[in-house]
Amino acid sequence: MTVQSFDIAEPFFNLDVVTAAERHQISGRAIVLNLADEPLEILDQSLPSLASVILQDVVLERVQQAAIVQGFDAHEDEAALMAQVRQAWPSAFEVRGEERLRGVQHYMSKKAWSGQVGFTFYHSASVPLKVGLHKDHPFCPVPGFREVHTQILGLGKMQQCRQQDVATLYLEEVMAPGVTHRPMFDADGNYPWHQYETITPSIFMAVELLPEGAQPPPPSPVLSRPAPSGPAPSGPTPSGVVQSHSQDRQP
């Protein structure tokens, strides 16, 4: 068993990736996302591929790979927490430079990779967000790119549309903390027009799964932000805000 601990969302949340564990103890409350193709076991139930739940004080069994987020419910004042996140994380437009993100109150952590799986936390501050419908992921030229989003705080919705126009919406999934929307890609990694939209100010985790033969893109230049002033938010112990590194643990 290997446990990788990533600091991309600290001091606000903890992210661990557990690989090849016959048993793994969840202590306290956590959002668990199954990253493997096969289900993992929770008591007498199973968690399917790319599905997530909130768990508390329970043992996971037959874990091929799973992401575990803790600290999501450790903050008494979510508005104050999100204000500190906006101080710590740059806007998505600053990092990605996509025109559809210009002027949008959408902020992002650094990205971390565990093999072919990438993780980024996003804070969507406005309601509505209007992040823009899209269906292409040009940084991955190899067919078979997969992506899902897991709600961490607040309420959001994943919208799918027939055309690049919200008026053509045909499917909408509401996302509360611990919820991952259903995969919307086909076997070749083709997507409908889609976007994340806010119901309340929100934080979610984007998970990108690269196909065989694809390489993780080089890190984007991220503008450094000072650590938030004032007392640290209640929750995980701070160990860096915008630096990204992982620490492997093999119990």
Write a concise keyword list for the protein shown above.
251 residues, mainly beta, Jelly Rolls, 2 domains, 6-stranded antiparallel β-sheet, 5-stranded antiparallel β-sheet, 2 helices, 14 strands, 6% helix
Would you kindly provide a brief summary of this structure?
By secondary structure, the protein is mainly β.
Structural class call reads: mainly beta
CATH architecture of the largest domain: Sandwich
Strand order within the widest sheet? 4-3-5-2-1-14
Assembly of the depicted chains: single chain
Write the CATH fold name of the largest domain: Jelly Rolls
Mean pLDDT: 89
How helix-rich are the residues, as a percent range?
Answer: under 10%
How many domains? The number is 2
CA gyration radius, whole angstroms = 17 Å
First-to-last CA distance: 7 Å
- Please indicate the percent range of residues in DSSP E strands (runs of 2 or more): 35-45%
CATH C-level category of the largest domain: Mainly Beta
Total helices: the number is 2
Low-confidence stretches: 234-244
Overall spatial form: globular
Main β-sheet description: 6 strands, antiparallel
Number of E-type strands: 14
Written as H for each helix and E for each strand, in order along the chain, the element string is EEEEEHHEEEEEEEEE
| CATH homologous superfamily placement of the largest domain | Jelly Rolls
